[in-house]
Every structure is written in structure tokens, then in C-alpha cells.
Design a protein that fits this description.
38% of the residues lie in helices and 19% in strands. The protein is an alpha+beta fold and 756 residues long. Strands 1-6-5-4-7-3-2-8-9 form a 9-stranded mixed β-sheet. The two termini are 79 Å apart. About 2% of the residues have low confidence. The site of adenosine-5'-triphosphate has 16 residues, from helix 2 and helix 3.
């Protein structure tokens, strides 16, 4: 039958090229990728057989075999990797090996192509190279495959997928050898000249042992051949005959026996490569760091080493004992924060070393922990337990709790024991801890304990460390939240100035989740979180009689200004008060305990805008729940008080109008200083303009010369596009530039013209 020829999907060609270009120095990975594909295929067969018995009778052996064959000339050769897995029919061969069905492939490829060759190694590793890594070592790959007998196909045929490394096409055809496989897949790599060293069996054994012996729970066999000396029976026979003949002729025989004749033969043997129990079954004390890392890289297809791991034995409440290995990858998936629904896909549940599921259904890990890589191997569950049975039972729920508890323990231990490592972990997982603290009600305290913040005094401060530094009498944890602002700017805020000047520590929160964490927790070890941009701030030492007296006195002194301001700015704020929270700034706008801080207001308008919602009455009401706090020690405020006092003595309308203007600028300035938006920025700037004129002695009413040149008449004609050949010219020569021109003849010589 004729072979069908197909074009590779364009992404495949790109991926193959990137793989080959960027991973040359890592080309050993091809074997681990193919073994892992073979393992997945057998796992799939076993899982399918749970519901469809014809697929596998439970008796036929499930395994992976590797065999090498040298060319006649002894130079090159082939590696053949065969599995007894689920196999592929011709359509599946085309789809699985000729297209990339993964989402985001194009984006990924564009990114990998833009990186330099070595950099994309890591990217590719994270993406998973899979089958295409074959082309690292092979210039031709042939995949023969045959699905098992099933209800869909009672007599499946074996087909071949064949492709060369530089072809843009691949071929699919019925295997001319017939059905050589009962079921499964056989991948034959025709090695490149420079990859012939992979034919060496001891090298392959080493490769499997380091990278893949734990990638499969099914036995991996390697065909090894060695030369042995055996008795050469043919030679013995001839000698014996010769001796008999001689005996007939000669009476006396030499008694000393002839040494037996030997010959050298090649003996082949399937060597079981992964006969050791998997690494997680061993005693952690006997497993090296390197072994843990190799297992991680092979199982989870990451070229980078994990940041940390945790290997433990446990028991679920329902009495199932298990061994588990938790890994913390060195970085989060690029889509982690963009994909709120993504659940953990790398939690591999095994029963007696055999893979059962990665799908925990409703017991999936919460979003904050969905990046974790886990191998969990249970002892006592029946092997043929179906996914549905598992999901409806308590086992997965218990496993989920245990895994979460252990991840937190692992991080907490690192935080205590290894500052440097924890700093590294913070860089990647800092936001994850905040996410956990706000979404995981059960573990929020522990996760919040892992969060770190910058303060006006230092960096990387935990809530516990904050409390160790609190001042006598202080009953609040002070924080200022303004999403997206630099911490340096937050430290300069009006709300922080007094606290800072007095030596109090303030947590500076500028990430979207920060304020949510503070509000979810409400208190830490019994101490309440206090937004310093809100009313209710207490230093804790206000009870001092002297301070109380002096504030009382200031309040009385400033009553006329406060009353006057209440009338002037009463539309924008609910109240005006003499404040004790400021040092150098003249005033600030503080949100009431009921009202919105600038940060919350920003969040609200962003969500409202996104939802297309109009500001409702309630939002408007909340927005107004602000208090203008004035600083009686600021010269500007003292000056205003003097003016208000003067006004009450002699009524001067001009002076009053001027003061009103100052008050309005003061309020707007306070709003800006406090992080709010000015309601009408045009009006605000016009007022500032007027005050500036006054200070420069310029007339306040004189208008600028506003005569302007009107635009020329309407001209619907479109500009000419000047083209030179097929290319567009991107500029036109302006009319007013004069060129000296020369006329040139056919041979390029200048023609002299007298008139020129
Ligand atoms: N030995 C095999 N037996 C059956 N199907 C296979 C085999 N090898 C590959 N496949 C099929 O081809 C698909 C593509 O394989 P490939 O290795 O490129 O990617 P993958 O295994 O899906 O992803 P990754 O390698 O990143 O885990 C697989 O998903 C699987 O369906």
C-alpha cells in the first residue's frame, strides 16, 4: 500500500528546530522523554483496561524494552524503544506526532525563538519536549504502533509514522512487516553519525539509571550482549572420532586427556534496569540531593533544579499509609496568576508504585498551592480503584489536607533555618503566600506567617517580627496600602510622617493582595491591623495628661478655622478636625472607619469600570466618609486661622474670596497628598493659576491673547503615495527644497548641458 505523505503543522517544524538548536548539549534527555512517553502509554492502557477488559487481559506483561542494533559496517546504528502501551492508530499517529495540540504553543514558540539558544533550553524544558527530542540524536525516526483490541476495533493493524530530521513532511503507512506487535509502540531512532556512542549498552544503562529508572513503575529492560566461552561440542566430536580411529590402529594409547575445546559465543540477555524500589520508598537518609533533583527533573520535566523538597511517610486518618515527596519548583508557571481556575496537575497519586491519577476532582489543591509537584504512593488501596470511587471517598480529601500542611511546614522550616533560601523562596512565592492567606480559611494564619513586608524602617518583615518591635502601649499594627505605588513613596506619605518621626513601624503595602490579607486577618496575635489612612489610629500613649491638655487647648484655639472650613469644604468631606497625626504637612484627608481609603476607592472604581457599573448611591455615600484633618502646628494652617479671625472682625469680601480659594486648594492638595483623586482637576489648576498670578503681581483677570490662525479650507484629496518600484517610499521631498540635477546617459556618464 502507498504511504500517505503529510506536511507538518508549521508549529511542529518550529518546535523541532528550537529543540535541536537549543538542546544540543542536553541531548541525553531524548531517552528520558521516550521512556516517559512509553510509561504514559502503558499507564493509559492499564487505566483503560479497568473499564474495557478486551484491551488488556491482566496477564500479558507490561514493560518497556530498549534494544540497540549496529549497522553492518559497524559505524552507525539504531536504538529501538518498545512499549506495551495503548498504541496509536494511523489517525492518532498523525495527530499526536504531527501536530501540537497544546494551547499557547505559538506564544511559547515566539518566546523561545526570541531568546538566545541556551536560554530557551529552560523554556523548552518547562514546556516538555516530548517526542521531538528524538531528533536530537536521530536523523530519521520511525514509529510503528498498534492499538490493542477494543470495542472500537476488533482487529487493529500496525501502522508506521516515519520522518527525517530535516523533512517538512512525514509519512504514515501500514507496516510492511505486518503486525509484529501484540499491542503498543516501537520507536526506532536511526542515529546521527555523531550520536553513535549511544549504541553502547553500558552507556545506555547509566543513562537510564540516572535519568529514568524512576520514570516508570513498569519494568525497563535493556538488551545486553556479552561474549562467553562455552564448550565447543562440534570440535569435541571430531577429536573423539579421530582418537577412535587411531585407537584401532595403535594398541597403546596415551593416557593424558586432551583439554576440552572451547569457543566464544555472544549471549544476549534482557537486563532489568529499574529493579530497585523507587526513590521515595527508600530511607531519606540514604538518598542524595542529586538523586532527589534527578527524579524531579525527570518526572516533572523541568530542566531547572527545584528550590526545595520534602520527603515523608504518613498515614491518612482512614488508615492508608503512604510515602510522599513534595517539590517546590524554582519558578511559577508563566500563566499562574492569569489563570484563576487552573488546578494542580502535577500531583501524582500512585498505589503500590503504579500511577492512578493526577485528578483530585473536587478535592483539588486550592489555587495558592496548585504549583506544587507531588508524588504520593499509597500502600493499601486496591490497585483497580477507579477515579470516581477515589473522588467520592475520604482518601483524596485527607491527602489534600496532608499535602497542604506539609507544604506550609516545609516553608516554615526553611524560614526558620535558612534565611538565604527563604529570601529566594520569597521572590517566587511571596505573592502566593498572600494569596493563600486571603483564600484558604483553614490555613490563613500559617500562610500569613510566611508573608513579608517592607516597612518604613526595614525590609522583609513578618507580622511576628513587627510585633517584636512594637512600642509600649501600641495596640495596633500600622499599615498603609496603596496598590502599585513604590514603597519609597509610601514611606513619604502624610499618613506615615508622624509615626515615622516618632519611631513607630508602618507596614508599607503596595501589592494588590496586601490590604486584602490585612482585612481578612483583622488581627495578628490579638493586635488589630490599623490602616493609617483611616480614622481610629492610636499611638497608644495618648493618655498622657500633658498631651491631652495641649491638644485640647489647640482645639479650642483653632475652633474658628475648623468651623469656617466645615462650611467651605463640607460638600467634599464629612468633618474637619484638629489633628495630632501630622508633623510637617498642613493637612490630610482621612477615611472614616466606614469610608473608603484612597486604595480601596481605586480598587472599587477599577472593578466598577470593568463591570460597567454606575456609581450607586451607597458608593457615593461611602466616598464622602472622609475627614479633613488639619495640623495646628503647620504655618499655613496658623496663617489661615489668623485670616479667619481677621474676617470675623472686619468683613472684607475680597479677602474672604481669596481665603475661600486657598481653602479649596488646600482641600484638593490634601486629597492628592492622601492618595485620592481631585474631583475636578481643571478647576483645581485654574485656582492654582490664580494664586500664582497673585504671588507674581500679575493681573488676575487679564486674559492671554487668544487670537489663533484658523485652519485652511477643507481639502478631501488624499496625499499622493510616491512609490519606487514595489517598495513604498516613506518620505516625500518637500517642495521648497531645490536639487542640483545631473542628466545621465545609458552608460551612466553625465551629459553636459550648457544651460545647466
Ligand atoms: N509511546 C507512545 N505510545 C502511545 N502514544 C504516544 C507515545 N509517544 C507519544 N504518544 C502520543 O503522542 C503525544 C505527543 O507526545 P509528546 O511526547 O510530543 O508530548 P506529550 O507526551 O503529550 O507531552 P510532554 O512530553 O510534554 O509530556 C502524546 O500525548 C501521546 O498521545
Amino acid at each position: 500500500q502507498q504511504a500517505e505523505k503529510y506536511e507538518y503543522q508549521s508549529d511542529v517544524a518550529r518546535l523541532r528546530r528550537i529543540v535541536v538548536d537549543s538542546l544540543y548539549s542536553n541531548r541525553d534527555v531524548f531517552l528520558r522523554e521516550l521512556i516517559s512517553n512509553a510509561n504514559d502509554a502503558i499507564e493509559k492502557l492499564r487505566l483503560t483496561a479497568l473499564t474495557e477488559k478486551t484491551v488488556w487481559d491482566g496477564a500479558a506483561p507490561l514493560n518497556i524494552t530498549i534494544k540497540t542494533e549496529k549497522d553492518e559496517d559497524g559505524k552507525g546504528g539504531r536504538i529501538i524503544i518498545t512499549d506495551t502501551g495503548i498504541g496509536m492508530n494511523p489517525e492518532e499517529l498523525t495527530k499526536n506526532l504531527g501536530t501540537l495540540a497544546r494551547s499557547g504553543t505559538s506564544e511559547f514558540l515566539a518566546k523561545a525563538e526570541s531568546e538566545d539558544a541556551t536560554g530557551s533550553g529552560n523554556l523548552i524544558g518547562a514546556f516538555g519536549l516530548g517526542f521531538y527530542s528524538s531528533f536530537l540524536v536521530a536523523d530519521r525516526v520511525q514509529v510503528a504502533s498498534r492499538p490493542p483490541v477494543s470495542s472500537k476495533d476488533s482487529n487493529p493493524s500496525q501502522y508506521v509514522f516515519s520522518s527525517s530530521s530535516d523533512d517538512a513532511t512525514f509519512e504514515i503507512y501500514p507496516d510492511p512487516r505486518g503486525n509484529t506487535l501484540d499491542f503498543g509502540t516501537e520507536v526506532t531512532l536511526f542515529l546521527k553519525d555523531d550520536a553513535a556512542s549511544y549504541l553502547d549498552a553500558s552507556g545506555l544503562t547509566k543513562l537510564v539509571n540516572t535519568h529514568s529508572s524512576f520514570s516508570s513503575a513498569f519494568p525497563i529492560y535493556l538488551w545486553t550482549e556479552k561474549e562467553e566461552q562455552i564448550l565447543d561440542e562440534d570440535a569435541e566430536e571430531t577429536t573423539k572420532e579421530a582418537v577412535d580411529d587411531e585407537e584401532a590402529a595403535i594398541e597403546e594409547v596415551d593416557e593424558s586427556p586432551e583439554p576440552p575445546k572451547m569457543k566464544t559465543v555472544t549471549v544476549g540477555n534482557w537486563e532489568h534496569l529499574n529493579s530497585q524500589p523507587p526513590l521515595w520508598m527508600r530511607d531519606p537518609k540514604e538518598v542524595s540531593e542529586e538523586e532527589y533533583n534527578l527524579l524531579y527533573k525527570a518526572t516533572f520535566k523541568d530542566l531547572q533544579e527545584p528550590l526545595a523538597h520534602h520527603h515523608f511517610t504518613g498515614d491518612t486518618g482512614s488508615g492508608v499509609s503512604f510515602r510522599a515527596l513534595i517539590y517546590v519548583p524554582s519558578k511559577l508557571d508563566e500563566t499562574y496568576f492569569n489563570d484563576p481556575l487552573a488546578s494542580a496537575k502535577d500531583i501524582r497519586l500512585l498505589v503500590k508504585h503504579v500511577f492512578i491519577t493526577s485528578d483530585f476532582g473536587e478535592h483539588a489543591l486550592p489555587k495558592w498551592a496548585s504549583w506544587v509537584k507531588v508524588i504520593i504512593d499509597a500502600d493499601d488501596l486496591p490497585l483497580n480503584v477507579s477515579r470516581e470511587t477515589l473522588q467520592s471517598g475520604t482518601f483524596l480529601k485527607q491527602v489534600r489536607q496532608i499535602v497542604l500542611k506539609r507544604i506550609i511546614q516545609l516553608f516554615s522550616r526553611i524560614a526558620e533555618e535558612d534565611e538565604e533560601k527563604f529570601a529566594e523562596i520569597q521572590k517566587v512565592y511571596g505573592t502566593v503566600f498572600k494569596l493563600g492567606a486571603s483564600e484558604d480559611a483553614k490555613n490563613k494564619e500559617k500562610l500569613a506567617g510566611l508573608t513579608r513586608f517592607t516597612t518604613n524602617q526595614r525590609k522583609d518583615v513578618s507580622f511576628d517580627q513587627y510585633l517584636e518591635n512594637k512600642k509600649e502601649g501600641q495596640k495596633q499594627i500600622f499599615y498603609l496600602a496603596d496598590m502599585g505605588k513604590a514603597v519609597e513613596d509610601l514611606a513619604q506619605s502624610v499618613f506615615v510622617e508622624k509615626l515615622h518621626a516618632r519611631g513607630y513601624e508602618v507596614l508599607l503595602m503596595n501589592e494588590p493582595l496586601d490590604e486584602i490579607v490585612a482585612q481578612t486577618l483583622r488581627t495578628w496575635k490579638g493586635v488589630t491591623f490599623q490602616d493609617v489612612a483611616k480614622s481610629g489610629l492610636k499611638f497608644g500613649d495618648e493618655d498622657n495628661e500633658e498631651d491631652k491638655q495641649s491638644l485640647k487647648q489647640l482645639k479650642t484655639e483653632f475652633t474658628p478655622l475648623v468651623e469656617w472650613l466645615k462650611q467651605e469644604v463640607g460638600d467634599a468631606v464629612r468633618d474637619v478636625v484638629v489633628s495630632d497625626r501630622l508633623v510637617t504637612s498642613p493637612c490630610a484627608v482621612v477615611a472614616d472607619s466606614m469610608g473608603f481609603t484612597a486604595n480601596v476607592q481605586k480598587l472599587m472604581s477599577a472593578t466598577n469600570r470593568a463591570a460597567g457599573a454606575q456609581n450607586d448611591f451607597m458608593t457615593e455615600f461611602m466616598k464622602k466618609q472622609k475627614v479633613l484633618e488639619i495640623n495646628p502646628r503647620a504655618p499655613l494652617i496658623q496663617g489661615m486661622l489668623r485670616r479667619v479671625d481677621q474676617l470675623s472682625e472686619d468683613k472684607d469680601e475680597d479677602a474672604e474670596a481669596e481665603l475661600k480659594e486657598v481653602a479649596s486648594i488646600l482641600l484638593d492638595g490634601a486629597l492628592v497628598r492622601s492618595g485620592f483623586e481631585v474631583p475636578n482637576s481643571n478647576l483645581f489648576l485654574t485656582r492654582v493659576d490664580r494664586v500664582l498670578r497673585r504671588s507674581l503681581g500679575v493681573s488676575e483677570t487679564a486674559a492671554a491673547d487668544s487670537t489663533v490662525k484658523p485652519a485652511p479650507p477643507v481639502d478631501p484629496k488624499l496625499p499622493d503615495v510616491v512609490t519606487g518600484g514595489d517598495e513604498k517610499m516613506f518620505f516625500q521631498v518637500p517642495d521648497d527644497i531645490e536639487f542640483e540635477m545631473e542628466e545621465i546617459d545609458e552608460d551612466g556618464n553625465v551629459i553636459a548641458h550648457d544651460e545647466l
